[in-house]
Here is the input.
Amino acid sequence: MTHPPISSAAPPGAGSALPTPPPPRRTAFAEGIDQLRTAATTEPGRLRLIGAVLALLIVAFGAVTAWQMTARANAADDVLHHSQPLSSDAAEIYRSLADANTAASSAFLAGGQETDASRELYESDIRNAATLLVTAASNAEPGSPADKAVTKLNTLLPEYKGLVERARVYNRQGYPVGGAYLRYANDKMQQDMLPTAQDLYETENTRLSSDYADATPYPWAAMALGVVALAALAWAQLRHYRRTNRLLNHGLVAASGATVVTLLWLVVGHAVARSGLEGSYEHGVRSLTVLHDARIASLKARGNENLSLVSRGAETIEVDGKSYDTYYYHFDQEMAALGDGLAQAAKLADGPADSKPVVAAEANMKAWKQRHSAARQADENGDYQTALDEVIGTKDATAECFESVDKNLNTALTLEKHEFQQRATDGRDAMTGLPIGAAMLGVAAASGALFGIGRRLSEYR
Amino acid sequence: MRGGVAVFVRRLRSSLRGWGGVGAMAVGCVLALAFVLLLPLTQSHGEGGDGGTLGGQGLANGSQAKAGSCQESEAQNDTWSPSSADGPTIEAIKARKGDARKLIVGVDQNSYRWGYRNPNNSDADLEGFDIDLVHQIARDILGDANAVIFKAIPTSQRIPAVEDKQVDMVVRTMTINCERLADVAFSAPYFKTGQQVLAPRSSSIRGYDATLAHKTVCTADTSTAFKKVTADKASGKLPSSVKVVTVPNQLDCLVRLQLGEVDAVITDGALAASQAAQDPTLKLEGPAVTTEYYGVAMNKSAQDLVRRVNQILVDYRADGWQASYDRWLSATLGTDSSASKPPAPQYLRKS
Here is the structure.
């Protein structure tokens, strides 16, 4: 429409059919400007224009506020009910797998004396992982990295379980190849399954971060429009006062009032929501991540401690030219990671209630290290049975320390999860009603402005 | 105007979302790539540790340069003549007090029928052919067959453990060869074996020969078997289509074989027999293709202990050896022990 037909672009044959090209049409924009210019020459025209602009600004302010806050409220809701639970689930998949691996090696060491409790622990870990994988699969888009990770884990889980069962059967018959099967199962877990579970966890965490990023930024567009609308309202009232010497125009005052309320609600509501959400991240998600990592480290340390007794020196690892037993070496590494994790968790804890289980876990860890070195010494001196008793026995064994660490970390995780939920819920609730309220106030303010201008216009009839 | 702003913002948002998707995919790709690149590293790390075969290592490598006049074919005779006399090493062992008055021996705990902790024994006691010999040595030196501290040592730690005197001796399916003679002293041989092929009974593999063509064989990392197969493939003794898989420990080969990931295992006959004993569907195929002798490794300075062990072995071969063989090995190596019994020893080391 805005392009005038250009005759030179037409084919020569067609051009010859038109006797003379018509004068180029003026653009709609230019025509509109002309109309406005004509209207602005009279006071009623100017008033109409001002009314239209005010109404538009206010409606735009209300609409943008409603829209931006809807997006943020939805993202906050996703953090609370979607991405954080999924991230937690992924962490739980990881933990279940690592725990199953540890339980399998404990049960293996006990051989024929395997207890119901240790068998049940292993089975329930496997069930738990399988159930959570179903949830994760239903929340993953087909072909996405999360979907691929879930598929891979679903393939590996039965393979792993098969290897563990073989290990068990051979071990019960007294064949050393049982230990080799368990080491193979462990390799599959450590080198294929846990890294894949880690990928899934990271993918879910990316989703969580992106939801946080959608929920917390300042709604600059809405704020700017609010300020502009208020400024326009102030200008209109000043103009009104100068022209008529009347102090107040009820409609415009009502419009200003509604706009101020909306703007304040927007700024304060968002600030509260933001601080709640950021708090839920700082005091919830970060602590949860650190505690989760510490728990994994303790699980891996325990698994390595068990496997050192299963492998009995079958595998060594060379580090800086020195040769170590693979599993004892990794035990030391994981214990160091556990120590770091617990120290960090203690630093992040808010107050004594939060730090209590972490401090308790640190004490358990110290006892674990002491008992472990006694067990290792017994093992290295050829006193295998003593070493075994000191690791999986029922009295003063490292098993007890590991279980206490795990229990305390679980308590700490529950506390932090509660903290996260409380803060994130507060944050999300601060935005409740804001979109609808902003929309309604916007409509009311626009009506007020139109009503005020209408009153002035009626004086000209 | 409202619509215009909304459309513009929506478009901006959707374009950003598009970039978010691309970003996520890029991150995914990087992660996947890192995973793929790092996986072989971590694996090779695990296998790289020289927890190699439980059998002999580096036998085939000529080590004349290192061991001076050592001839590989005569290595098993490079030991001192037997003697029952106590020397400084034996006196030091006997002088140990109380609970510590025990012989400290490095053994294996994972070789079925050789040195193995049976979880069904009381206190998970060790058992096997090597363990019987250790008890015999302890009975002779300390008068108590159970006066032994068994130390589980990985394959790669056998020589350092002897050199550093962490153990008095190593009895752990250890092959006598020139390379090792440079670092430790050996007793006279107590067992004869050689590299052999282990395969399922139903397999078409008939031995260490052309029937291995297009098959995948498993060997322990850095083991004699691995070196021999690699060399024979290069020289044309074995078809070049033989694929070799290496694992950290010879026992892992049995796992791979049972899972169908490999077609055959190559290791020394004694350990192959230990694997066959755990799975009756497997069979040793063809004759041994090398000749190796197991010996007891001791510190080079412990001349009196070596002579004493050689004296014990003289008696043991006459009485004890066959009973132990019948108990642990006859089921898989055959009731005829002549192929496993070492020939009458020569004691060629003079100083």
Chain A is about 85% helix and 0% strand.
